[in-house]
Amino acid sequence: LRATEYSGLSHVWANVIEANAEQKALIELSENVYRNDLSIVEKSSHILEIERLLTIQGKRKLRGDNRFSDRRDARITSKEIAESIGLSKRVFQNHKQIGKSLSEEAKTLIKGSSIENNLRKLLEVARTTGAKEQVAFVNELIKIKQKKTKSEGKVKSQTVFYEKIDEQGQI
What we know:
The chain has helices spanning 2-7, 21-33, 40-56, 78-84, 89-101, 104-110, 119-126, 131-167.
């Protein structure tokens, strides 16, 4: 509604639905997963919460349910959840693993770091057992990334320096 006010519009089309607190939370989480400014860890937490809410509402198919026996079954699978939020089933499963397996200490270190949006590195950390081991691994990955960034910066500055010399005709 604020965007409507800022743009000067007097009317806006809207779908008004009645929903309980869990349904409202589910709608909000589903919309937030689409946002580009969420990190992989934040998106993973949202995905786990979506699954939890669907399970509470009885809308989530569980492991062992026969997906072929009753086509009228309104409960949804992981693949259907993934598609509804714009992810492949594999990426969806990777996000779930990150959300479930990362320790809170590791999540804190990852936030704002150079590996925050590196799915492959986050999966490596998530597959490491133990909170202390995850923290040590995250620290190691961040140090390696910082060293690479610093060395890449030196190479770029040297390249620029030599280009300026060449433009002046000096060696």
